[in-house]
Amino acid sequence: MTGPLLHDLPAFRETAAARLAAFPRTAVPDAPGLRRAGVVICVTPHPGGLAAILIKRAYRGRNAGQWGLPGGVLEDGETAAQGALRELDEELGLRLEPAEVLGALDDFPASSGFAISPIVVAPADPGPLRPSPDEVHSVHHVSLERLAADDTPRWVPQLDGGELLQMRLAPGWVVHAPTGAMLWQFREVVLLGRHARVAGFLQPDWTRR
Protein backbone atom coordinates (compact mmCIF):
# COMPACT_ATOMS: atom_id res chain seq x y z
CA MET A 1 0.00 0.00 0.00
CA THR A 2 1.33 3.41 -0.97
CA GLY A 3 -0.11 6.87 -1.26
CA PRO A 4 -0.38 10.21 0.48
CA LEU A 5 -1.95 8.69 3.62
CA LEU A 6 1.36 6.97 4.38
CA HIS A 7 3.70 9.78 3.33
CA ASP A 8 2.01 13.16 3.63
CA LEU A 9 1.28 14.47 7.14
CA PRO A 10 -1.68 16.74 6.27
CA ALA A 11 -3.28 13.94 4.24
CA PHE A 12 -2.78 11.51 7.09
CA ARG A 13 -4.23 13.89 9.65
CA GLU A 14 -7.33 14.57 7.55
CA THR A 15 -7.99 10.90 6.79
CA ALA A 16 -7.22 9.68 10.30
CA ALA A 17 -9.52 12.25 11.92
CA ALA A 18 -12.37 11.34 9.57
CA ARG A 19 -11.99 7.59 10.01
CA LEU A 20 -11.67 7.82 13.79
CA ALA A 21 -14.71 10.10 13.99
CA ALA A 22 -16.71 7.48 12.07
CA PHE A 23 -15.44 4.60 14.20
CA PRO A 24 -17.78 3.59 17.07
CA ARG A 25 -15.09 2.89 19.65
CA THR A 26 -15.73 0.51 22.52
CA ALA A 27 -15.03 1.65 26.10
CA VAL A 28 -14.38 -0.72 28.99
CA PRO A 29 -16.82 0.15 31.80
CA ASP A 30 -15.62 0.85 35.33
CA ALA A 31 -15.41 -2.20 37.58
CA PRO A 32 -13.93 -3.01 40.99
CA GLY A 33 -10.18 -3.39 40.72
CA LEU A 34 -9.99 -2.04 37.17
CA ARG A 35 -7.10 0.31 36.53
CA ARG A 36 -6.81 2.65 33.57
CA ALA A 37 -3.94 3.67 31.34
CA GLY A 38 -3.59 5.85 28.26
CA VAL A 39 -1.14 5.40 25.40
CA VAL A 40 -0.32 7.42 22.30
CA ILE A 41 0.06 6.29 18.70
CA CYS A 42 2.17 9.24 17.60
CA VAL A 43 2.75 9.58 13.86
CA THR A 44 5.61 11.79 12.71
CA PRO A 45 7.60 12.38 9.52
CA HIS A 46 10.52 9.99 9.13
CA PRO A 47 12.93 9.21 6.28
CA GLY A 48 10.95 7.38 3.60
CA GLY A 49 7.51 8.42 4.85
CA LEU A 50 5.43 8.71 7.99
CA ALA A 51 6.13 6.49 10.98
CA ALA A 52 4.67 5.66 14.39
CA ILE A 53 6.81 5.89 17.51
CA LEU A 54 7.37 2.81 19.66
CA ILE A 55 9.57 2.52 22.71
CA LYS A 56 11.38 -0.27 24.47
CA ARG A 57 10.76 0.34 28.13
CA ALA A 58 13.60 0.76 30.60
CA TYR A 59 14.78 -2.45 32.25
CA ARG A 60 13.17 -1.63 35.57
CA GLY A 61 9.68 -1.39 37.05
CA ARG A 62 6.47 -2.42 35.30
CA ASN A 63 6.83 -4.03 31.84
CA ALA A 64 10.62 -3.88 32.05
CA GLY A 65 12.24 -4.18 28.62
CA GLN A 66 8.95 -4.70 26.77
CA TRP A 67 7.87 -3.02 23.56
CA GLY A 68 5.21 -0.40 24.10
CA LEU A 69 3.56 2.79 23.01
CA PRO A 70 4.35 5.95 24.98
CA GLY A 71 1.91 6.15 27.87
CA GLY A 72 1.10 4.95 31.34
CA VAL A 73 -1.25 4.87 34.28
CA LEU A 74 -3.84 7.64 34.55
CA GLU A 75 -3.74 9.93 37.56
CA ASP A 76 -6.87 10.75 39.56
CA GLY A 77 -9.25 12.92 37.57
CA GLU A 78 -7.44 12.54 34.23
CA THR A 79 -9.12 11.58 31.01
CA ALA A 80 -7.37 9.02 28.84
CA ALA A 81 -6.20 11.76 26.46
CA GLN A 82 -4.89 13.95 29.28
CA GLY A 83 -2.98 11.09 30.87
CA ALA A 84 -1.59 9.79 27.59
CA LEU A 85 -0.34 13.23 26.56
CA ARG A 86 1.21 13.80 30.00
CA GLU A 87 3.06 10.50 29.70
CA LEU A 88 4.19 11.36 26.16
CA ASP A 89 5.78 14.51 27.56
CA GLU A 90 7.33 12.72 30.54
CA GLU A 91 8.71 9.82 28.51
CA LEU A 92 9.75 11.49 25.24
CA GLY A 93 9.64 15.24 25.87
CA LEU A 94 6.84 15.80 23.33
CA ARG A 95 4.35 18.34 24.67
CA LEU A 96 1.06 18.34 22.78
CA GLU A 97 -2.31 19.94 23.42
CA PRO A 98 -5.59 17.99 23.67
CA ALA A 99 -6.79 19.76 20.52
CA GLU A 100 -4.08 17.88 18.60
CA VAL A 101 -5.69 14.49 19.32
CA LEU A 102 -7.17 13.07 16.10
CA GLY A 103 -9.31 10.46 17.83
CA ALA A 104 -9.24 7.26 19.84
CA LEU A 105 -9.42 3.52 19.28
CA ASP A 106 -11.04 0.84 21.46
CA ASP A 107 -10.05 0.39 25.07
CA PHE A 108 -8.00 -2.79 25.33
CA PRO A 109 -8.83 -4.92 28.40
CA ALA A 110 -5.37 -6.21 29.26
CA SER A 111 -4.99 -9.36 31.34
CA SER A 112 -2.87 -7.34 33.78
CA GLY A 113 -6.06 -5.66 35.02
CA PHE A 114 -5.68 -2.43 33.03
CA ALA A 115 -8.04 -0.94 30.48
CA ILE A 116 -5.69 0.73 28.02
CA SER A 117 -7.05 3.64 25.94
CA PRO A 118 -5.08 4.46 22.75
CA ILE A 119 -5.26 7.94 21.26
CA VAL A 120 -3.85 8.99 17.88
CA VAL A 121 -1.85 12.15 17.26
CA ALA A 122 0.19 13.49 14.34
CA PRO A 123 1.90 16.72 15.45
CA ALA A 124 2.90 19.14 12.72
CA ASP A 125 6.10 20.11 14.52
CA PRO A 126 6.93 17.64 17.29
CA GLY A 127 10.45 18.93 17.89
CA PRO A 128 13.34 16.72 19.02
CA LEU A 129 12.70 13.64 21.13
CA ARG A 130 14.14 13.74 24.65
CA PRO A 131 13.67 10.22 26.03
CA SER A 132 13.67 9.85 29.81
CA PRO A 133 16.33 7.28 30.74
CA ASP A 134 14.29 6.33 33.80
CA GLU A 135 11.40 5.13 31.64
CA VAL A 136 12.70 4.56 28.12
CA HIS A 137 15.52 2.24 27.07
CA SER A 138 15.29 3.10 23.36
CA VAL A 139 13.03 4.79 20.79
CA HIS A 140 12.06 3.22 17.48
CA HIS A 141 10.01 4.17 14.43
CA VAL A 142 7.84 1.81 12.40
CA SER A 143 6.79 3.12 9.01
CA LEU A 144 3.12 3.31 8.18
CA GLU A 145 3.93 1.40 5.01
CA ARG A 146 5.20 -1.47 7.13
CA LEU A 147 2.15 -1.37 9.39
CA ALA A 148 -0.14 -1.49 6.36
CA ALA A 149 1.76 -4.30 4.59
CA ASP A 150 -0.07 -7.58 4.04
CA ASP A 151 2.65 -9.66 5.70
CA THR A 152 2.96 -7.61 8.89
CA PRO A 153 0.24 -9.38 10.93
CA ARG A 154 0.80 -13.07 11.52
CA TRP A 155 -1.67 -15.33 13.32
CA VAL A 156 -0.02 -18.19 15.20
CA PRO A 157 -2.25 -21.17 16.16
CA GLN A 158 -2.18 -22.09 19.86
CA LEU A 159 -2.69 -25.45 21.55
CA ASP A 160 -6.02 -24.30 23.01
CA GLY A 161 -7.38 -23.59 19.54
CA GLY A 162 -6.93 -19.82 19.66
CA GLU A 163 -4.57 -17.69 17.61
CA LEU A 164 -1.85 -15.34 18.83
CA LEU A 165 -1.25 -12.15 16.85
CA GLN A 166 2.33 -11.25 16.00
CA MET A 167 2.97 -7.86 14.42
CA ARG A 168 6.22 -8.38 12.49
CA LEU A 169 7.58 -4.87 12.19
CA ALA A 170 11.10 -5.74 10.98
CA PRO A 171 13.45 -8.74 11.00
CA GLY A 172 13.72 -9.76 14.64
CA TRP A 173 11.12 -7.19 15.72
CA VAL A 174 7.84 -8.82 16.72
CA VAL A 175 5.23 -7.15 18.92
CA HIS A 176 2.35 -8.97 20.63
CA ALA A 177 -0.80 -7.79 22.40
CA PRO A 178 -1.57 -5.48 24.09
CA THR A 179 0.69 -3.18 22.02
CA GLY A 180 0.45 -5.39 18.95
CA ALA A 181 -3.34 -5.46 19.19
CA MET A 182 -3.57 -1.67 19.33
CA LEU A 183 -1.19 -1.32 16.37
CA TRP A 184 -3.28 -3.86 14.43
CA GLN A 185 -6.48 -1.91 15.12
CA PHE A 186 -4.75 1.33 14.11
CA ARG A 187 -3.71 -0.36 10.88
CA GLU A 188 -7.22 -1.67 10.20
CA VAL A 189 -9.24 1.41 11.17
CA VAL A 190 -6.96 4.33 10.28
CA LEU A 191 -4.72 3.02 7.51
CA LEU A 192 -7.06 0.58 5.77
CA GLY A 193 -10.45 2.11 6.61
CA ARG A 194 -11.95 -1.07 8.08
CA HIS A 195 -13.80 -1.49 11.37
CA ALA A 196 -12.17 -4.13 13.58
CA ARG A 197 -12.22 -5.14 17.25
CA VAL A 198 -9.39 -6.37 19.47
CA ALA A 199 -10.82 -7.01 22.95
CA GLY A 200 -10.50 -10.78 22.72
CA PHE A 201 -6.94 -10.94 21.42
CA LEU A 202 -4.67 -13.37 23.25
CA GLN A 203 -1.66 -12.10 25.21
CA PRO A 204 1.57 -13.99 25.89
CA ASP A 205 1.99 -14.95 29.55
CA TRP A 206 4.98 -12.62 29.98
CA THR A 207 2.86 -9.55 29.17
CA ARG A 208 0.48 -10.17 32.08
CA ARG A 209 2.45 -8.21 34.64
Automatic annotation (TrEMBL):
InterPro entries: CoAse, Nudix_hydrolase, NUDIX_hydrolase-like_dom_sf, NUDIX_hydrolase_CS, NUDIX_hydrolase_dom
Needed cofactors: Mg(2+); Mn(2+)
Superkingdom per UniProt: Bacteria
Domain Nudix hydrolase: start-end pairs: 33-164
A Pfam family reported for this protein in Swiss-Prot or TrEMBL: NUDIX
Sorted UniProt keywords: Hydrolase, Magnesium, Manganese, Metal-binding
Listed PROSITE patterns: NUDIX (PS51462), NUDIX_BOX (PS00893)
PANTHER family reported for this sequence: MITOCHONDRIAL COENZYME A DIPHOSPHATASE NUDT8, NUDIX HYDROLASE
Family, as annotated: Belongs to the Nudix hydrolase family.
Protein name per the record: CoA pyrophosphatase
